[in-house]
Amino acid sequence: MIEYENLKKLNEPFFAEYMTAFRQTMESGWYIMGNELSCFEKEYAQYCETQFCIGVASGLDALILALEAYEFPEGSEVLVPSNTYIATILAIIKAGHKPVLVEPRLDTYNISPVEIRKKITPRTKAIMVVHLYGKLCEMEEIMQIANEHNLVVIEDGAQSHGAKLNGRKSGNLGHIAAHSFYPTKNLGALGDGGAITTNDASIADKLMYLRNYGSKVKYYNDRIGINSRLDEIQAAFLRIKLRKLDEINAHKQTLANIYHSGLSDAVVKPIRTPGYEDVFHIYNIRHEKRDALRDYLLKQEIKTEVHYPVAPHKQKAYAKFFEGQVFPVSEEIHATTLSLPVSYWHTEEQVNAVVKAVNSFVG
Ligand SMILES: Cc1ncc(COP(=O)(O)O)c(C=O)c1O
């Protein structure tokens, strides 16, 4: 069986270093907001080439806090792609704003700058872009639109650690960026974790309060905040994995190259665009008989995933926010997309076997 993901296998190369870090952190007797967190924040900011990094408890919290830091009027409109993972939309609602869904491009799966322009109103305050599957959005065009309309651009970089656009890294392409360290991510922890990166000193300073009960000095609460801190243990593990992130991404890129050259043109493969260095958090293909292909692969002992089976505007809890609206591009993606195995521990041999099986289905 070729599994889609196996978190034990993914982390096994780091077990020895994790054990040392675990012991040191345990014996330090300091478990929240200590040396590991501040070192990780410095190292991750350096990696993203931003001035500031603030560790938080999850990617969702990173998105919520990034929005809250700007203090937009309640009910402001925030543009967000219609085919994102639900967290991006949930964050806007939790921050007290209105998510306005924008269709993606069918060739990149990322938010369309042309569609962004159509959705801007006097109430629009921000664009939340999502670098889906590990491919960056068209940030030069998007920043141009944002400048014209005085909008804040928030990157959802949960799936794009280390991706580059013309040499610039994910997390340093908008005004502020949210990162998730959920275990399956390219930079994944052994539990939940997240971070915010920015080059804006006053926003970074505000976030240091917001993530910790509105307090920077113990028992002095200058703002209304929440409890969303990145644990010392997770920060210690993340420091170890961060040193290997480029190697993890390079391995995923090698596997993606095998898919790209080996898969039949009867499936839609991820587009390759000069200047974009994709990190393939997910390697997705599209095919009109997606479900039959998925069943066929399972019979060949190959597990796949669907990111994501239901479009956000069709989710039970969210449909009420988007009544009467249609998103055909998003629906086409949700109906046809299939994610193939592309983890750090998968071998070239395994990926060649997946290529062979997919090709034998599509003929
Ligand atoms: C695009 C995207 N945004 C946000 C999140 C939320 O991150 P977390 O699970 O760490 O809250 C995820 C992943 O889970 C994601 O894939």
What secondary-structure arrangement, pairings included, does this model have?
Elements: H1 7-11, H2 15-28, H3 35-48, E1 52-56, H4 59-69, E2 77-81, H5 86-94, E3 98-102, H6 113-119, E4 124-130, H7 139-149, E5 152-156, E6 164-165, E7 168-169, E8 176-180, E9 194-198, H8 201-210, E10 215-217, E11 220-221, H9 232-242, H10 245-262, E12 276-277, E13 283-286, H11 290-299, H12 328-336, E14 337-340, H13 348-362
Parallel strand pairs: 2-3, 2-4, 4-5, 5-8
Antiparallel strand pairs: 1-9, 6-7, 6-12, 8-9, 10-11, 13-14
Q: Which keywords apply here?
A:
single chain, globular, 13 helices, binds pyridoxal-5'-phosphate, alpha/beta, Aspartate Aminotransferase, domain 1, 7-stranded mixed β-sheet, 3-stranded antiparallel β-sheet
What do these coordinates show?
The protein is an alpha/beta fold and 363 residues long. The protein has 2 domains: 7-102 and 110-242, Aspartate Aminotransferase, domain 2 (3-Layer(aba) Sandwich); 245-362, Aspartate Aminotransferase, domain 1, CATH 3.90.1150.10. Helix content is 40%, strand content 15%. The strands form 4 sheets. Strands 1-9-8-5-4-2-3 form a 7-stranded mixed β-sheet, with helices on both faces. Helix 7 (139-149) links the parallel strand 4 and strand 5 (152-156). Helix 2 runs antiparallel to helix 9 (232-242), helix 4 crosses helix 5 and helix 10 (245-262) packs parallel to helix 13. The longest helix has 18 residues, at 245-262. The chain is globular. Residues 58-60, 84-85, 87-88, 130, 156, 158-159, 180, 182, 192, 194 line the site of pyridoxal-5'-phosphate.
